[in-house]
Amino acid sequence: MKMQEILKMSLEELENKVQSLKKELFYLRFELALGKLTNTAQLRKLKKSIAHIKTVLTQKNTNLKSTSIPKENDSSSNTPEETTEELKKKLKNQNQ
């Protein structure tokens, strides 16, 4: 499948396509094990297609999540450096 075709598909279509490609890959693996598969390049193409579709699914899902969940502007949250400094101060006070 071409990437342009994949990008045009909806989330449901992409999920259905992944499932159908996985089934096809399953059957091709059986044919390979039985020695009936003549074109082994099909396995590689299917795996790549599944990876492309999963990548697009992940991108679309993260875009949906980032647009639907607003970021919190909490000024009281500590950065890791501040937390480390606070811990050092506490340890110093305990040792004295």
UniProtKB/TrEMBL annotation:
Keywords: Coiled coil, Ribonucleoprotein, Ribosomal protein. The gene is rpmC. One of its GO terms (cellular component) is cytosolic large ribosomal subunit. InterPro entries: Ribosomal_protein_uL29, Ribosomal_uL29, Ribosomal_uL29_sf. Residues 4-31 form a coiled coil. GO terms for molecular function: structural constituent of ribosome. One of its GO terms (biological process) is translation. NCBIfam families: L29. It comes from the Bacteria. Transmembrane segments: none annotated. The keyword Ribosomal protein applies. The keyword Repressor does not apply. This is Large ribosomal subunit protein uL29. Belongs to the universal ribosomal protein uL29 family. Residues 62-96 are annotated as: Disordered. It comes from Strawberry lethal yellows phytoplasma (CPA) str. NZSb11. Gene3D superfamilies: 1.10.287.310.
